[in-house]
């Protein structure tokens, strides 16, 4: 059954571990998205050819699915969702709550969650996670 809905199937152990694994993914995505968006904003502010910059860095150490797939959409002005901001905020809050229960901090995730909350307040909760780009021009 799982093979019908996904290509990578990895058993994570006892009940609840799958949810925690999803949170690991969302934490990594939040940090990656923040870095990719700030890199694009920096390139724009330095008046670089952003598409050319992406070609140069996407295959190196900065390369990621986000850099290869969502960065070009940001440059093209495409902020339609693959994953909605409102759902991402929910997931980030779950991860932050779990970390708090276990008495540790995730300051990078807390920063990302705060920025996405601001986007939601500004009416962008139905946009894709790459709409984080708008934060840098709304403030």
TrEMBL record:
Residues 16-136 form the 3-hydroxyisobutyrate dehydrogenase-like NAD-binding domain. SUPFAM superfamilies: 6-phosphogluconate dehydrogenase C-terminal domain-like (SSF48179). GO terms for molecular function: NAD binding. Signal peptide: none annotated. It holds the Pfam family NAD_binding_11. This is 6-phosphogluconate dehydrogenase.
């Amino acid at each position: 059954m799982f093979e019908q809905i996904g290509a990578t199937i990895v058993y994570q152990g006892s009940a609840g571990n799958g949810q925690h694994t999803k949170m690991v993914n969302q934490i990594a995505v939040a940090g990656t998205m923040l870095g990719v968006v700030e890199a694009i904003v920096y390139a724009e502010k330095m008046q670089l050819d952003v598409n050319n910059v992406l070609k140069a860095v996407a295959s190196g150490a900065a390369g990621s699915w986000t850099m290869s797939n969502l960065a070009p959409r940001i440059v093209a002005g495409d902020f339609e969702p693959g994953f909605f901001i409102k759902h991402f905020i929910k997931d980030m809050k779950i991860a932050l709550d779990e970390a708090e229960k276990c008495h540790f901090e995730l300051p990078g995730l807390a920063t990302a969650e705060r920025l996405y909350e601001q986007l939601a307040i500004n009416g962008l909760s139905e946009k894709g996670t790459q709409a984080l780009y708008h934060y840098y021009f709304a403030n």
